[in-house]
Amino acid sequence: MSDEDEIVGLFQEDERVMSLLRAVKSLDLPDEDTGLCSGDIAGSEGAMLRSFFGHAAYAVVVSAVSFVFYWVLKIWIIMGRFTAADAPPGDISISEKAFYSYPVPVGYGIFMIGLSLWLCRFSTISSVRISAVFIFGMNAAIVLYFIVQFRGIAFG
Length: 156
Hints:
This protein has 156 residues and is an all-alpha fold.
């Protein structure tokens, strides 16, 4: 006979205690071993799934914003390099070429990292958390890609 059965046997006559015991049993309390409620989405698997989709959504949004930024800046650089037919192409100076190749992509990366960390800090309503390492890694890869691409466009 378990401790719970003994307690129930002692207080079977008192209806108030019995209704309280039924109410406690009906609560969705965390399991002692796992710490998870039965209503959780498959426990840690649900948290992992939310984390995966949160990181995937972040990657898609940052990729889309970076794609638009890339094409706008690429067109801007090409328009600056294009001149009328009577002048040689490549009228932008070496300092402009270096500016478009290095500080602009690095500045974009710093801005996106700062914006991402700021949004993550203030998104306490959501249960999805995005790791700072992922934010830094994703934006560092984009910055390196931009440096390589813009250097080729500006100096090419």
